[in-house]
């Protein structure tokens, strides 16, 4: 099989809009994995909310999390590598958020921190619990025992658009990503899904032409363009589709399953 490593985005790609993973997609992934192809989830999620999908499918290997800022072994939960950012550089962004009533959180590879966790409203708690995350009170920088890998804001689309426009005019000390209609992430300048996927491919001895990636949003662009075959979902913005090599059906129409069948199982299915 040509593709030895396949990277899959999670939300808007692998999962449908109800955050479900279809049985048909699971079976297709298992069939390809049994032939020796490695799968890696490449997501903005944390390990705690992405590793369960790998275990549901029955896969080991790795997850690339926090939009490329941390790569973790699925079976041992060992951190393979992470891009730590300078927390002091976040202070102007935090002040902006406080002044403009923008919700933010600070992430280590496994932890998530907010100001006044006990005071979070139910909407914010529901958002975190949907991603299997439990927010903790944000300590001082000196009290962090683990590197900080991501700073995230969340809000309604019009608020996110306004913040993105404002921050785009600032000197760019971080990699600023639109990771969804409701989110903006700040990470280390060198952190991205594409750079993390490249590191993993090199670690596994797999050249780019034998890598396939499937995604649906702006934070997927770097991995779609790194991979020998980059596939965008039908529910992707037009700029993402234009950057990809191919387009599959939407996440609500099992687009991942259809792409995997077309590019990885077509010959086997014809034989059957």
TrEMBL record:
Database matches in PROSITE patterns: COF_1 (PS01228)
Enzyme class: hydrolase
UniProt keyword annotation of Hydrolase present: yes
CDD domains: HAD_Pase
Molecular function (Gene Ontology), one example: hydrolase activity
Keywords in alphabetical order: Hydrolase
Protein name: Cof-type HAD-IIB family hydrolase
Organism from which the protein derives: Paenibacillus puldeungensis
Organism ancestry: Bacteria, Bacillati, Bacillota, Bacilli, Bacillales
